[in-house]
Design a protein that fits this description.
Helices cover about 55% and strands about 5% of the residues. By secondary structure, the chain is mostly helical. The protein folds into 2 domains: about 190 residues, no CATH class; about 110 residues, no CATH class. The strands form 3 sheets. The protein has a 3-stranded antiparallel beta sheet. Strands 2-3 form a two-stranded antiparallel ribbon. The chain has a two-stranded antiparallel ribbon with strand order 6-7. Helix 2 packs across helix 3 and helix 3 crosses helix 9. The longest helix is centred in the C-terminal third of the chain and has 20 residues.
């Protein structure tokens, strides 16, 4: 492998971090090279736009903590959150991918460029006491010159994987949210799609003998429902699924349920966990259910979306 690419891998894997800025910066540069490997000059505007996209999708769908201080998000992320709040106050709370609403936003790139100039662009080049010349930085002109753009493009698939892997590692130190790597992957690639819920039937049938919401008999009118709507969670978690009558599932839409229903589901989850243990069903779904109870995922996500 070319030494210059090895240097990129070295910096991505070993640079010091106290937030995810450097991974967003690296990923944006690789994406710019992938889009246009004939241009060696990359303006901060392009990098800022792409980093805004990454943080928008990770935050609006999953509200992942991007820095070590939960009470003081990185400045770039705080700005993204402000824009999300503005957008949702105008268009509603349902999460929307950045790619779908980019033309509805007025991003202050000058402000974001200043953050990158101060906090990321020169710091990314250092690993310990060693500096790597991955690009030529013009802080005044807000540009970087990447002489090996074509080479970066040819290694882009591997570089994206390495960046995402390190990004997930960083996020896992700040978040207790389940399946972070999956969430990064689906927000990164877009096209978040529903999966079949049939695989959960054998678990839910252990406890949900009647409609979880109404308490009525199913009478062959049965469906699996996300208590916190799928459109908010964008994931299928056993601790968030219940058996309901199809007619209820159709009418519920994207409503956030009341606290009393969350309390009942917390009780159901504990009962389901106990039954699975007694039947020696100790598979992946058991582990996820156990983790959700220990970390109070259901209540935390409900409060987050309720607010």
């Amino acid at each position: 492998m070319d030494t210059r690419i090895k240097n990129w891998f070295n910096v991505i894997k070993n640079c010091s971090v106290d937030n995810t800025y450097k991974m967003g910066w690296a990923k944006a540069i690789v994406e710019c090279c992938f889009e246009d490997d004939n241009s060696k000059i990359i303006h901060f505007d392009r990098v800022s736009s792409k980093m805004f996209k990454y943080y928008w999708n990770q935050t609006i769908f999953f509200d992942l903590q991007q820095g070590s201080n939960p009470n003081k998000p990185p400045v770039f992320v705080s700005y993204v959150k402000e824009e999300i709040n503005k957008f949702q106050s105008r268009y509603g709370l349902q999460p929307v991918e950045f790619e779908r609403i980019e033309n509805k936003l007025n991003i202050d790139l000058k402000h974001l460029n200043s953050i990158l100039s101060q906090n990321v662009s020169h710091r990314f080049l250092k690993v310990g006491k060693e500096s790597f010349k991955l690009y030529e930085l013009d802080k005044k002109g807000r540009t970087i010159r990447v002489d090996i753009a074509p080479l970066i493009k040819s290694y882009s698939d591997v570089l994206f994987e390495v960046v995402n892997y390190r990004w997930v590692q960083i996020l896992e130190t700040y978040n207790s949210s389940p399946r972070i790597s999956k969430k990064i992957k689906i927000t990164d690639r877009g096209g978040i799609k529903r999966q079949s819920l049939g695989k959960f039937k054998k678990y839910l049938s252990l406890t949900d003998k009647k409609c979880f919401i109404s308490g009525e008999d199913f009478n062959n009118d049965i469906s699996i429902d996300h208590m916190i709507p799928w459109s908010f969670m964008f994931s299928d978690d056993i601790w968030n699924l219940v058996y309901v009558k199809k007619s209820y599932n159709s009418s519920k839409s994207n409503r956030i349920v009341e606290k009393s229903e969350i309390v009942r589901l917390e009780k159901r989850n504990k009962e389901l966990l106990s039954i699975m243990e007694s039947k020696n069903i100790l598979d992946k779904n058991y582990q996820e259910l156990k983790l959700s109870i220990e970390n109070n995922f259901l209540r935390k996500f409900w409060i987050s979306f309720k607010g």
